[in-house]
User: What shape does this take?
Amino acid sequence: MENYLGNVGNTECKAREIGDPCSTDEQCNIGVTGSICKDGTCQCQSGYHDVAGVCTKRKIGDDTCVITPDCADAVANSDCIGGACACLAGYYTPDTTVCIKRKIGDACGVDSDCSPAVGSSECASAKCECLSGYYASSDRMSCIRREIGDPCGGEADCSDAVDNSACSGSPASCQCLDGHVLNGDGTSCDARTVGSGCTTNAECSVVISNSNCSVDGVCECLDGYNPSADGDLCTLRSVGDPCGADVECSTAVPDSYCASDGTCKCKFGYYSANGGAECRPLAIGDGGCTSNAECTSQIANSECFRSKCRCRIGYLTSDDNTQCTKRSLDDPCSAPDDCNAAVSGSTCQGGQCVCKEGYERMSTAECRKREIGDSCTDDSQCAAVGGAVCGANRTCECTPGYALAPNHTCYDRELSLLACTYL
Assistant: This one.
């Protein structure tokens, strides 16, 4: 009987024991249940250990293991940890002979008791529970992320599962926040942008200031506003921005219009200021003019000189640079033309407008040329009349050798006689 082993004197056949020589598993297992023939001797099979010659199946808590199969081959879902058999994370044993996978609602001590067994779960109040934003499946073996339309009990039920969502309505369910729409994969409610579909103005304006829902059912910027590159903002238009109609410019920047090149420009007589946020009327000293007409459209008696508005010669700039007033006598000046262009017969002397020699001041706006017979105090006052001096009676009269002509001028008698001689 080859499955049995003879004793020392070969007087009897006995079943093999642990440690006896062997050639097949059957030779060992007849004598010791749970044993196999390994390396020519009977040994306990994996998952069992020798207890006084008996192969005993390991249990959870046994401290005789060395490698994982010592435990896992005896109790599924177990491992050798620190020399003792223990259930894998996420499993528990009710009686040391089995490791059962935890479900939602099972007892736990730490998060790792739950999460390896049920994804998106945690240990809360000593029980396995789904993370916020998830709910348990009917068999309690999985946690399902909430989606838009799923029932909910509080804000976090929705917002922790789908960005920019909330628990609202009756009965309560997860809904996208106002102004948001569900993205393609259902993981987020994305804010509407210019061009997104809509049915009411609020669906656009709650997330994009200065926008509304157009008659075509898409979000668009209000007149006077321009969409940003990614469409999430409507910014106030400025000079130079693209446009399609005058109102798109003038609403944002008064005194601007949509030019033929499709950009906002300041109206004639205005210039761009404050980074294009304003169109200001041209004033004296302002740059940007290209013609006299641009300056005179805002300031009478002005002209464009080297791309800047200035008052014409003979006119004085007001303190606020918005008016050109005609110079008068006594006004400041820097050149004769500053005065003479405004008051005929005047000149600039000592930085002020005064009447020229030979002219009499009648008012701040008039210098009258002195004539023969006018009062005087010195010859210079009569200099406007050639050949005249201030006579002894303090009136302008012709000098000796000159005679009075009918037009109140003085002529040289000798030159006159010579002219007659040659006639």
Q: What stands out?
A: Confidence is low (pLDDT under 50) at residues 419-423.
